[in-house]
Amino acid sequence: MPAPIRLRELIRTIRTARTQAEEREMIQKECAAIRSSFREEDNTYRCRNVAKLLYMHMLGYPAHFGQLECLKLIASQKFTDKRIGYLGAMLLLDERQDVHLLMTNCIKNDLNHSTQFVQGLALCTLGCMGSSEMCRDLAGEVEKLLKTSNSYLRKKAALCAVHVIRKVPELMEMFLPATKNLLNEKNHGVLHTSVVLLTEMCERSPDMLAHFRKNEKLVPQLVRILKNLIMSGYSPEHDVSGISDPFLQVRILRLLRILGRNDDDSSEAMNDILAQVATNTETSKNVGNAILYETVLTIMDIKSESGLRVLAINILGRFLLNNDKNIRYVALTSLLKTVQTDHNAVQRHRSTIVDCLKDLDVSIKRRAMELSFALVNGNNIRGMMKELLYFLDSCEPEFKADCASGIFLAAEKYAPSKRWHIDTIMRVLTTAGSYVRDDAVPNLIQLITNSVEIHAYTVQRLYKAILGDYSQQPLVQVAAWCIGEYGDLLVSGQCEEEEPIQVTEDEVLDILESVLISNMSTSVTRGYALTAIMKLSTRFTCTVNRIKKVVSIYGSSIDVELQQRAVEYNALFKKYDHMRSALLERMPVMEKVTTNGPTEIVQTNGETEPAPLETKPPPSVPQPSSQANDLLDLLGGNDITPVIPTAPTSKPGSAGGELLDLLGDINLTGAPAAAPAPASVPQISQPPFLLDGLSSQPLFNDIASGIPSITAYSKNGLKIEFTFERSNTNPSVTVITIQASNSTELDMTDFVFQAAVPKTFQLQLLSPSSSIVPAFNTGTITQVIKVLNPQKQQLRMRIKLTYNHKGSAMQDLAEVNNFPPQSWQ
């Protein structure tokens, strides 16, 4: 049989292939020749054939048929055969295949070989693909080589020990005696691998971490090594861009970070050396920047001095001026992590951070945007909002939703005045109205309603904003609502804040009718407009007949929602005209249940209005029956009551055309007589026990006096807190507001919170403010739970949490039994 071609010739031949099919043909032909050679047990060219097979494997072609041949080469006495055999084993074998166990004895023999290079091959292979069984069998040999005086073997044995510890953590103590003298070695390769081994041991075992801190005095040794690296002169063997062994420096800094975390003594011992590294490292090359970045992370993670932390933040500030995009990105990410603890120090670099909003790189823009929102406070709110609104005007569409949401939250928290607050939100709606959250409209309506002194100014601004432009639907919805409420102020021209405009009643109706017929208007927007026209029948005097015609036209609309509204409004004109002015009177001042995040709005007349004119229930409200049944077993036994959904319930229409049909499905069970509620906004039905009739007092206490909040869940970076309020109208009702926060570095998406209580209670879950829990505690999800406890029994609850995090679906159950007595007694 002729000798097979060499590897070099095979590579040259394959590279001449012009098409993928031609390359496959060459590979298949060569694989057939290699198989024939393997069958004939050709020992002369086995090494050459396996080498060619490994090259084909690197190109992505199957090479599994060469696994046993690799084992034969490992068993050979020739070093060249062993080298190719071990390389093939690392590439073609892994612990999922039983074949790898056949090489355990060969590796053991080679670990005791007289040639250090053969021992090195065995250590590399074991450290690369050794299974837990192999690691248990060969750990003794690795530990023995870790104590040898040969630096070539010690560095390889240290890395192999790292793999053994990862596979079999209980073998960690076996390597503890061998680590005592590792840091006294002068060879940088041994030092590097030793630090890697010590880092692995400290990360995996708190006991080992405490041992190295107290008994081994590891921190002083590492400080000494790091100081020698900084102060040593030029060494061509270890020099990289003028810095002595930056790889070892980075590894030592990472280990110091682990040792100094939450430990005062260790942190104190390394403060000086960290300051030296931060001030003496050259920043003109990327190597120096890598060391400085690790130094900053270490300073921020240990209990360092305040001056050192300021120095670290100033280093990150210099990074923001670097031309390298990667350096700017890591600087922004690091500042975002530290802004909560060192807010004032980060504020000094605010102008540089804002400049990063203009960067062309989208990842830098996003980090700069997140950091800018984190820097907003009561002192800089006007300047920061000006920059962020400019960014909102010019940024890509994928940024607009997050930017608008952040502006809303910041304005709500730090607004210097109500007029500024309203102007800011209107600017956002004008710029990015299609990207705002669903709760933006009811939140702005609530804000406008409460700003009694600037109603005329607001309605005039909104009227001018939508003249001829209906593209921003949330803006049109707010404008329609305000024109319906305060149309009389618009026509009277009573605006004092700016020059009033002269508008007639017919011009106002023209705008609203244009909204109704516009192709850009959604069903919800048309509902706002039709209701606004109806409300104007009590505010205008000369156009009532025109309003009647418009309303009657939509009584036959193909849109069921518009048709229902129009029919009910027609009934008001024809049968209940004497009630119309009372039913359509101006809305009272609204009060928010909670101040953090989008929640329902509670009116002072006792009605609940989650979202004005919202005809569709939130997507997270309807729970499939199977999902509700999943909660029935949460507390054990059969005494569980399922969650009461908040979606509207269908009700047969009565033939009499009663007044209650105008108000929607409002349950007046056992309610005393009350003044008719305004029909300007359809109400979403609530379970009877939560309403107890319509009263003139607030439905819930504004302040949960004397009821402490609790932490119901804290695990894997997710934290759930409960705050409590008691109902004024029904003392048996407890209102629990949950706040979910996320301290990890990635957002938690598709977040769903479910709860179950015993049958002696009734429970209602309202829709959450969002389904995404932002990372780094930069925001929260809020959700309201209402619990009826007529028997005043101790409250128990089982909660179920489902979300996606880091690409994995997470699910967890927990029991909450630590409710404060004030919440249920």
Automatic annotation (TrEMBL):
Subunit of clathrin-associated adaptor protein complex 1 that plays a role in protein sorting in the late-Golgi/trans-Golgi network (TGN) and/or endosomes. The AP complexes mediate both the recruitment of clathrin to membranes and the recognition of sorting signals within the cytosolic tails of transmembrane cargo molecules. The keyword Nucleotidyltransferase does not apply. It comes from the Eukaryota. It is a peripheral membrane protein. Its main location: cytoplasm. Keywords: Coated pit, Cytoplasm, Cytoplasmic vesicle, Golgi apparatus, Membrane, Protein transport, Transport. The lineage of its organism: Eukaryota, Metazoa, Chordata, Craniata, Vertebrata. The keyword Glycoprotein does not apply. Pfam families: Adaptin_N, Alpha_adaptinC2. Belongs to the adaptor complexes large subunit family. It is found in: Cytoplasm, Perinuclear region; Cytoplasmic vesicle, Clathrin-coated vesicle membrane; Golgi apparatus; Membrane, Coated pit. This is AP-1 complex subunit gamma. GO terms for cellular component: AP-1 adaptor complex; clathrin-coated pit; perinuclear region of cytoplasm; trans-Golgi network. The gene is AP1G1. GO terms for biological process: intracellular protein transport; vesicle-mediated transport. Residues 601-627 are annotated as: Disordered. Residues 705-820 form the GAE domain.
